[in-house]
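User: Second chain of the day. Same drill as before.
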Amino acid sequence: MKNTERMMGRSVRRAAALAIAVMFAAAGCGSSSASKSAEYAAAESAMEAPAAGYSTNTLYDSAAMEEASWDGDAEMKTAESGSTQAETPQDTSRKLITTVHISAETEEMDALLAHVENRVNALGGYIESSDVSNGSYQTYADRTRRHRDASMTIRIPAENLADFVNDVQEHTNITNQSKNVEDVTLSYADLDSHKRMLRAEEDRLLGFMEQAETIEDMIAVEERLTNVQYQLDSMESQLRTYDNRINYSTIYLNISEVVEFTVTEEPETLWEEIARGFGENLHSVIMGLRSFFVWFVTHIPQLVIWAIVIFIIAQIVRVIRRRQLKKLAELSASGMGRPLTPREQAKLKKQQDRQAKKEAKALHKAIREGKVPPLNPIAVAPQPPQNDPQDKPQA
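Assistant: Same format as last time:
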């Protein structure tokens, strides 16, 4: 509201100054205008001199502009009016920006998020950003952590920061916590002093604007006033940013949903360490078997297809080898090929025995079904060997 009234006052004063300047110019005040122009030119050069020295760390010399100087009691002395204006004492408290990083675990993500939101609102803060990601378990065996995490940026009034951190510690399992405090007291005081000097210069320039009698003087003062107001807006923007970061602490909260909390273990004895290691390994074996069973059941369709393909390939290879061995045996019997090795002979004998068994089974089956008449057992019975008369023993 004060800024609006100030801007309205500036506009009125500028309009009045412009009207006065036009009236004096129309009335033919040429002689006085020359002297006034020289006077405002000198004032303009005096105003431009300190403008080059503006910075956030140094204060410019204001002798030419009769700028205000601040004494130990924070009073501003102006040379134009000779009056002293009392100012509010500057804040000497420390300007601290606090940032907290917290990594926590929870067993109920939804309930915790709702609790954090309610607690932030109750403490007068707000959630600046929030990101919640959902997912499944990492592996079949590792069921202690899920792909469900939440990242939040929270702004809490500085005086309520400790209450919020304690509340998070009570409702979660903190795995990591860090705190950073940045002291910006000197930077803040420098910006504030610079803003006060710019404000004082702005008031003097507005006074010069009211006293201007020519268009040239008014334009020169207007240019300088625009530059001062631009720097003043920049200073005020930086101070507002500092105030927000000082008054509201920033908390980066990362939450992971787990089935079991990560426990900080105390030093163990030898037997406790052995028992813990044995239990962990036994648990790993059980979970491994469980994972294999789950994998096997879920991949049965693929395993069946692969088994059929492998069986077909094995049968094709077996038939090809049989034919090759049979052909090699025929060539060896005819004397056109190399003789068979003992291993090849054993394979050939097995194939012949297997083939004979298949033919015998087929023949018996055909006989049972009546497709082939039964054979004469006398005809098929083996004949006993006949002894040669010459082989008879002599008496």
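The radius of gyration is 51 Å.

User: Great, on to the next one.
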